[in-house]
Amino acid sequence: MSGDAFEDALALANGPHPPGPAAPGRSAPGRPAPGRSPAHAPAAPPAPGAAPGQDPEAPAQAPGEPGLARPRRTPPPEDHGGLVTPGWDTARATAHRAVRPLPPRRLPLDLALGHTLAAPLTALTDLPAFDTSAMDGWAVAGPGPWRLAPGPGLLAGSAPPSAPLTDGEAVPIATGARLPHGATAVLRSEHGTAADGELRGPTPQPGADIRPRGQECRTGAELLPARSALTPAALGLAAAAGYDQLAVRPRPRAEVLILGDELLFRGLPHDGRVRDALGPMTGPWLTALGAQVLVTRRIGDDADALHEAVAGSRADLVVTTGSTAAGPVDHLRGVLERLGAQLLVSGVAVRPGHPMLLAELPGGTPLVGLPGNPLAAVSGLLTLAAPLLNALADRPLPEPRPARLTEEVRGHPRDTRLVPVACPEPGRARPLSYAGPAMLRGIAAASALAVIPPGGAASGDRVRLLDLPLA
Questions:
Q1: Residue limits of the MoaB/Mog domain (predicted)?
Q2: Is the domain of 206 the same as that of 262?
Q3: How many CB atoms lie within 10 A of CB 117?
Q4: How far apart are CA 50 and CA 47, in angstroms?
Q5: Best label site of 81, 185, 235, 444, fewest CB within 10 Å?
Q6: CATH number at residue 231
Q7: Residue 266 within a domain
Q8: pLDDT value of residue 459
Q9: Residue 466 belongs to some domain of the structure
Q10: In a domain, 233, yes or no
Q11: 233 lies in which domain range?
Q12: Positive or negative CA dihedral for 281, 286, 291, 295?
């Protein structure tokens, strides 16, 4: 069976829906379009000791994880002139190791959301910075009944009276107000009655409803380690701990180049031309993965324009769509060779998306080449671009989480498959239809991609899930 026929069969594995055609003139995974030749990819050699017929890149079953889907005995990986295409896990790890974190910079708190801490967040003050009331009521000294001290009550933000409370005295206090000296507890407002300058109620336990100074942390305590993502809660913690600015790894700047003369950018497909699906989604995918997208440019099949765009980019990551094969109008590899770029990954043993590539441009900027089919491009984004963005932001490579399949998923004889799944309940993954390389309907409804090992996985098998970014 041809590679393309096998891909079409896999697209039907979880539903009766026929796969959509590849974009005219573009290379679909497993089959070059007319006039184009398949890319041959250098890769790592087989792992020592790999069983004959088994993909050496596939993960072994982990101890304590019974039922994890494992590769079945299959033909050896494709060999192109002695170069074996790297497996999916190896390609991800290669991308994550390909770059160093971006230099840190200081940002005000209101601009730091989504960035990564470049250094540990340590408290600049005790939290709370002083003893405060946890409730509305009265600050009391000793047992009751209590005389109400003269003067106004204490509000949050007001200075406490200079004279300390003495035993048998009380003063009204609001939540968050600084406790006066001499106070031993707070009597809640619902527990006491004040009349004629006297407060009556049950005597609270010493320290009751008081938030003591340093209850949450002391000055110098580490609140968050370096490499933590700055969430809204983390920014609130930083503000409470006394920060106005933070040292962060900046969001990696990305530039997207859309290739292909067959693409339309508005209206319905006509005259053999198709709508561009990659332009509207690639930038938002990169943003969701942590990048700052500078621009999305439409280059077409113009080698000189592509060379100028890549050579002149000031981004931290360049992402191209299409042109990853080696046909007469697939100019990407020729442009990379002309620029003196080094190919780090040239094809990956994964379906869809195996023609994807990763190159290092002169000066060290990475370039990710995505295949032209939409789901194949998503596979390339999550396989190569996501690990690169994590590394640039000084974040670890996320590990897929395990789940059990609700039904069988057919596999490729040699390659990993990435299959859109819905997660109806924790620990369960339901494969979705419309999973062909040119389709987006499945991934649009998915919450994750299931990593299906060579040979496939049965219903009930444990597989790894690659969670999809939500926004």
A1: 255-391
A2: no
A3: 23
A4: 6
A5: 81
A6: 3.90.105.10
A7: yes
A8: 96
A9: no
A10: yes
A11: 106-125+217-249
A12: negative
Asked if 387 and 306 sit in the same domain, the reply is yes
Crossing angle of helices 303-311 and 332-339, rounded to 10°: 50
Looking at 362, 392, 422, which one is the last position of a domain?
392
Q: Which residue has the tokens 């897929």?
A: 400
Same domain, 117 and 181: no
Domain assignment present for residue 231? The answer is yes
CATH (domain of 173)? 2.170.190.11
Answer yes or no: do 374 and 256 share one domain. yes
Q: Which of 355, 352, 350 is nearest to 330 (CA)?
A: 355
Successive 10-residue mean pLDDT values, the chain, 471 residues:
46 40 35 33 36 35 43 45 72 96 96 94 95 95 92 86 89 94 95 92 95 95 95 96 96 93 72 77 92 92 91 96 79 91 94 94 95 91 96 93 96 95 94 87 92 96 92 60
Please report, as a single letter, which amino acid is at residue 121: L
Instruction: Give the pTM.
Output: 0.75
pLDDT at res. 279: 85
Per-residue pLDDT at 267 = 75
CATH assignment at residue 12: 3.40.980.10
Q: Whose structure tokens read 């039904």? A: 407
Cα angle vertex 262, ends 256, 263, to 5°? 45
| CA 432 – CA 430 distance, rounded (Å) | 6
Distances (CA, A) of 430 to 54, 305, 403, 442, 460: 26, 44, 10, 11, 10
Pair 173, 192 in one domain: yes
Matching residue, tokens 């006394």: 242
Tell me the one-letter amino acid at 348.
V
pLDDT at residue 263, as a whole number = 65
